[in-house]
Specification:
The chain is an alpha/beta fold. The chain is built from four helices and four strands, in the order E-H-E-H-E-H-E-H. It has a single domain, classed as Rossmann fold.
Length: about 150
Amino acid sequence: MADTKPYVLFLCTHNAARSQLAEARFAVASAGLAPTEIHPFTQQVLREIGLDLRGLRAKNLKDFLGKVNVLYAIIVCAQAERHCPRLYPFALQTLYWPFLDPTQAIGDSEQRLKTFRVVRDQIDARLRTWLYPRATASSSPDASSGHAARRA
């Protein structure tokens, strides 16, 4: 039986960095078209800001298609956007927010780690900008209960 709770799904190719950086910060789901392992720098930069990584793992988009009610699917990489199957009606809305892939950063470990931090902070800023109007609307007396898919 399909889960009836609405989700926000972050989608990228490998589900190793960008989508994990978003999922860990806002307790939403993430998936990849060809998932691998979560990159060690992804884990490190999330721990640096005090996030609990228990339960965080790379997942396949097939784990969600037709199984959960996705309110928003947010594609965070160009490759996933190009190769992604059609998401509607699986996802009611699909958004495209491309971010630099930090796993492709060059340089020594500290330079690469800095790239992961930059992308982490860009994702955080984009999510907060996107969520703020929704939080304000849902707290107004006239707002309906709707399908609040996020948990902060």
